[in-house]
Automatic annotation (TrEMBL):
It holds the Pfam family MAPEG. The keyword Transmembrane applies. This is Microsomal glutathione S-transferase 2-like. It is a multi-pass membrane protein. It is found in: Endoplasmic reticulum membrane. GO terms for biological process: leukotriene biosynthetic process. Keywords: Endoplasmic reticulum, Leukotriene biosynthesis, Membrane, Transmembrane, Transmembrane helix. It comes from Petromyzon marinus (Sea lamprey). The gene is LOC116955723. PANTHER family: MICROSOMAL GLUTATHIONE S-TRANSFERASE (PTHR10250), MICROSOMAL GLUTATHIONE S-TRANSFERASE-RELATED (PTHR10250:SF15). GO terms for cellular component: endoplasmic reticulum membrane; nuclear envelope.
C-alpha cells in the first residue's frame, strides 16, 4: 500500500494551509506582546494578550490530533473527504479564534463545529484502520462491502 503524490496532494495542501493558519494565530500573540510590551516568558499583565494567548494555546492543544486523524482518514479511506473535513475544521478553528476575542458565547459555535469535525475525522480514521486490519488479516474489504450495499440500496430505491 503506497501513496502516490496525487493521492495525498489535497492532504498536503490542507496541512500547509493549517500551518499558515497557525502562523497567523502566533502572529496575533506576537502583536499583542509588542502592543503591551510584555516579554517572554510572561503571558499575564493584559487581558487582551491573555485572551489571544489562551485562544492560540487551546487551538495548539488539538493541532497534533487534527493532523494525525486527517492523514489517517485520508490515507486509509478518502483523501478528498478527509481534506474537505480538514478545510472545514480550519474554518471552524478560525471561527473559534475570532469568537474567543468576543464574549464567552461567541466562541461556542466554532468550538462545537470543530468538535463535530474532529469526531468525523476520528470516525473516518477508525473505519479506515478497521478496513485495513480486516483486509490484512482476513482478506475482507469493509469499504467494498459498504459500496456494494450502497449500490444495491440505490437500485432498490428506484423501484419504490
Amino acid at each position: 500500500m503506497s501513496a502516490r503524490m496525487e493521492d495525498v496532494a489535497l492532504l498536503l495542501a490542507t496541512s500547509v494551509l493549517s500551518c499558515w493558519q497557525n502562523a497567523y494565530f502566533l502572529q496575533m500573540v506576537v502583536k499583542m506582546r509588542r502592543k503591551y510590551n510584555i516579554k517572554h516568558p510572561f503571558v499575564t499583565g493584559n487581558t487582551e494578550l491573555e485572551t489571544v494567548y489562551r485562544a492560540n494555546q487551546n487551538l495548539q492543544d488539538y493541532y497534533p490530533i487534527f493532523l494525525v486523524t486527517m492523514w489517517t482518514a485520508g490515507l486509509f479511506t478518502s483523501s478528498a473527504a478527509a481534506a474537505f473535513i480538514g478545510l472545514m475544521y480550519i474554518v471552524a478553528r478560525y471561527k473559534y479564534f475570532k469568537g474567543y476575542m468576543g464574549t464567552d458565547n461567541k466562541r461556542v459555535p466554532g468550538y462545537f463545529l470543530a468538535k463535530r469535525l474532529m469526531f468525523s475525522l476520528s470516525a473516518l480514521s477508525a473505519v479506515g484502520l478497521l478496513n485495513f486490519a480486516l483486509w490484512w488479516y482476513c482478506r475482507v474489504s469493509l469499504l467494498d462491502y459498504l459500496n456494494l450495499v450502497a449500490k444495491a440500496a440505490s437500485a432498490l430505491l428506484l423501484f419504490v
